[in-house]
TrEMBL record:
Name of this protein: Outer membrane protein TolC
PANTHER family per UniProt: BLR4935 PROTEIN (PTHR30203:SF24), OUTER MEMBRANE CATION EFFLUX PROTEIN (PTHR30203)
InterPro entries cross-referenced by the UniProt entry: MdtP/NodT-like
Domain of life: Bacteria
GO molecular function: efflux transmembrane transporter activity
Organism this protein belongs to: Aquabacter spiritensis
SUPFAM superfamilies in the record: Outer membrane efflux proteins (OEP)
Length: 469
């Protein structure tokens, strides 16, 4: 076989030099993810890629489940055990593989053709390389690097979302359990009142109307208890799903009531600025738009050359006892007769502007979401504090005075039952207000750092994918 031309021999080292040397990170790009998550929400994340890592995570989860869960423990269990989150980390690894692949030159094609007939032997050897891919290697590698960085922020966003959903599910489950326990006690009180009214009716001290009201009160509280039990069971299952638990682990323990309200709450005078700077989904969208802009420039640069391949060709021919070794090269270019590349450029431009408009819309929405979350956070705290500091103490006083007046025959059973009904409603509402504050606290944090329920990033990501096609 004849030696390859020097230009073809140097093509691959030159492409490697142009594209730079990109290698896989030891942890699949997880270091920035772990650092951001630890700093913002205090959780530890791990990408499980081996049996040893799985065993370590499992041991940590078991230790956390060995005692009643608090909100922080629930968050950590979700970060270690939620398989959907692990799938997001796999997506980050896929993006890194695409980045490394984009930094490598295209593999050359080698072909051999042998023809034998009529006393002649013709052997043709071909080595073909995609010249266009070699020339655009640095640009493609840079674009893939930006996309990989955007994927990192998507992984951070997914982690924040998993943590937020776990905390929300936790507060709902604990609040439902607390409401169920309260209604259990309320039903005992209603049962005792109904029994007492029946006994008083037997002596003539209570009318049939009083007995019917007491029985109806007991039935209504029993129905509320049944609904509370159903909600408690379903909210616990929602938490179980977020924690990724099954088997014996579903018997984890929860506290009997929600945490106390904090004495003071956060004040954020510039929530909009902080959200625009910190929101991971907004950062990822900016990076994706940057990658798209680079892709648009690449499309314009290569609009008239959609296929360019160069290669070495060496033939070995033998005919009538004479051996010939002709050599040369070939260059194949797709001639833009019908499509001058305008369709690719126009599609890239429109896709870029679509993504830019979506990004601007998202930035406006992020500012509004931050303001709304802060207002909700402050208001929900004031409402919950009002229940704890004013309404429930007053209800307790009203109940005590109503019982004294009933014993002194100053009010009838109807007024006593009405007072008790109002007290039950106030206590259940107070539990709901306390739960709503903790949910608002989670929503406020996600409005600043990311992890909320916004869905604009999916459209923007698909637009970016369309531009790179």
């Amino acid at each position: 076989m004849a030696p390859l031309p020097s230009g073809m021999v140097l093509a691959i080292p030159l492409a490697l030099l142009l594209g730079g040397c990109v290698t896989f990170t030891p942890d699949g790009g997880m270091a920035p993810v772990a650092s951001r998550v630890s700093g913002d929400i205090g959780g530890q994340v791990v990408k499980i890629t081996s049996e040893e890592e799985a065993a370590t995570a499992r041991a940590r989860v078991s230790a956390l489940l060995s005692r009643p869960l608090d909100a922080r423990a629930a968050l950590q269990v979700a970060l270690l055990n939620n398989r959907g989150l692990q799938a997001q980390y796999n997506a980050l690894g896929i993006s890194e593989a695409a980045y490394v692949a984009a930094s490598l030159p295209p593999n050359p094609s080698f072909g051999v053709e042998r023809l034998n007939g009529g006393g002649e032997l013709d052997v043709e050897r071909r080595l073909v390389a995609n010249v266009l891919a070699l020339l655009t290697l640095p640009a493609r590698s840079e674009i893939a690097g930006v996309q990989f960085e955007a994927a990192r922020h998507r992984a951070i966003e997914a982690t924040f979302r998993t943590a937020a959903e776990a905390r929300r599910a936790y507060y709902r489950a604990v609040a439902a359990r607390q409401a169920e326990a309260f209604l259990e006690k309320a039903r005992l009180t209603a049962d005792a009142a109904a029994d007492l009214t029946v006994k008083l009716g037997e002596t003539g001290a209570a009318t049939k109307l009083d007995q019917a009201r007491a029985s109806a009160f007991y039935a209504e509280v029993s129905n509320e208890l049944a609904r509370a039990r159903l909600k408690s069971a379903t909210d616990r299952e929602a938490l179980t799903r977020q924690l990724g638990l099954w088997g014996n682990d579903v018997g984890y323990r929860l506290p009997s009531q929600l945490p106390r309200l904090p004495g003071r709450i956060r004040t954020e005078p510039q929530v909009e600025v902080e959200a625009v700077l910190k929101r991971t989904d907004l950062i990822a969208a900016r990076l994706e738009l940057d990658a798209m802009a680079k892709s648009l420039g690449l499309t314009q640069a290569t609009r008239f050359v959609s296929l360019l391949e160069g290669g070495y060709r060496g033939n070995y021919q033998r005919a009538d006892g004479e051996t010939l070794r002709p050599q040369g090269f070939e260059l194949e270019v797709q001639v833009p007769i019908f499509d001058l590349g305008e369709t690719n450029v126009r599609r890239a431009q429109e896709t870029y502007m679509q993504a830019a408009n979506l990004l601007m819309e998202k930035a406006v929405n992020v500012r509004s979401e931050a303001r709304a979350a802060y207002v909700t956070y402050r208001a929900s705290y004031d409402i919950a504090r009002q229940y704890q500091a004013r309404i429930l103490p007053l209800r307790k006083t009203i109940n005590e005075q109503a019982l004294l007046e009933y014993n002194g025959m100053l009010i009838d059973v109807f007024e006593l039952l009405t007072t008790e009904r109002e007290s039950i409603d106030s206590n259940v509402s107070a539990i709901g207000a306390q739960r709503d504050f903790f949910l608002a606290e989670v929503d406020f944090q996600t409005a600043i750092i990311g992890g909320g329920a916004g869905g604009g990033e999916t459209v923007l990501a698909s637009a970016a994918a369309g531009a790179s096609d």
